[in-house]
Each structure stands twice: as C-alpha cells, then as structure tokens.
Amino acid sequence: MIRAVFFDAGATLLFPDPPVHQVYAHEFAADGCSFSDEDLARALEGAWRSIRSQGKTDRYGGVRGEPEFWKSVLNRVRASLDGGIVSDQAFARLAAHFRSAGSWAIFDDVGPTLESLGRRGLLLGIVSNWDSHLPRLLEDLGLSPHFKTVVVSAIEETGKPDPEIFRRACARLRVAPEEALHVGDSLSEDYEGARGAGLMALLLDRKNQYPAVADRIQGLSELSAKMGI
Prior knowledge:
The protein is of the alpha/beta class. The protein has two domains: 4-15 and 104-227, Rossmann fold; 19-101, DNA polymerase, domain 1. It is built from ten helices and eight strands. The chain has helices spanning 20-30, 37-53, 66-82, 88-99, 110-119, 134-140, 153-156, 163-173, 187-196, 223-227, and strands at residues 4-7, 14-16, 104-106, 123-128, 149-152, 180-184, 200-204, 216-217. The longest helix is centred in the N-terminal third of the chain and has 17 residues, at 37-53. The chain starts with a strand and ends with a helix.
C-alpha cells in the first residue's frame, strides 16, 4: 500500500517563467556578448550535457559550493559563445532572478493534485536535485504546506539517481521504500533512480517523449487514477 508520494520539483511542479534561455539571452546581451538564438541553445545544452557526463550525484558540491558551481555553468556557456566570462554584475542579477518566486510558475495540475492526495491522508514530500534555495522558493510560492519533507541534493550532498537520497526521504517520513511512490520527469534520475532505491515510480511525461514506458503519466491529473485511488 502506498503511504507516501514524493515529487521532483523542476519540470514536475514548477517551471521558469520566462524560460531560462530568454533570461540568459537578456543578461548575456547586456554583458556585451554577441550570439544567435541557435548559438545560445547549443551552448546551454552543451554545458548541461558536460555536467551530467561527470556523473556526480551532488553537482553543487554542497551548500558552500553552490556559487562556484553556478559561475562555472555560466562561464562555460559564455565561453562557448564568445570566449568570454560572465561579469560579477551579470552573475549577481541571474542568481537573484532564479531565487525569486516571481521567476517561476506552477503547473495548473499541481494544486488540485496535492490537495486531493492530502485529503486521502497520503504523506507528501519532494526529492529534488536543486541548490539550497529550493525550500525558501517553495515557501514563497505557497507550496510548502503540502509537504512533510523537502529533500534537496545540495543540502544532502547526494542526489538522484543515487538511492541514498530516496532512502533518506523515506526515513524522514518513516515509511519503507516499498510504501512510497516517486513522480518526476527524468527517466534516469526520477524513474530509474527511484526504482533502483526500492520505491515505486511514475514517469511524468508532459511532452510525450517516452511512449514505450508503461509506468508514465502525461499530467499530474492522471496520478490518482494511475494509483488506483
């Protein structure tokens, strides 16, 4: 029997609004960088592909390592565009932007889903590869009251798909892994990671990219029916 449901955060519950590439484009242009939309898209994808290839479960290097991590990401993108580096002023503006609740939007299906699950007595939590500002962001967005625990990779110094972060989340809600379901949009980090830790898992496939995955939903409104409740 499912007693707890964990959710990923980004692209599952919330998304950047305006989109990341638009924010970066504005700041890079203000910082004196010349580029095309195609150049920026390639640079962003290349930077994150390089980070993922390192295989680190805590990409941030803990809370103390967050500023250097984000600077390295931004400088990697900037270097791909014109060989330059991001100014301190641009970095500060970007950091402030993405820490602000006004820079994020919540998917329409999130509120009704969380309220429905809560009424059924299920324990809800978040397991996310994010920096240490996520709990404050969730509070500012009004989502915190729904969750009994928020487990964040930078704070834990381990992240998905490592089984350890899922085990810690289960322990904090005092449920066994087999009593928990995890829902997220990443095939490797959320779906395969949770299953590898002994949890049940559903892949949230909002863009219909993984039709071959049986245990998937295309929106959170399908969650209750998929759970059989």
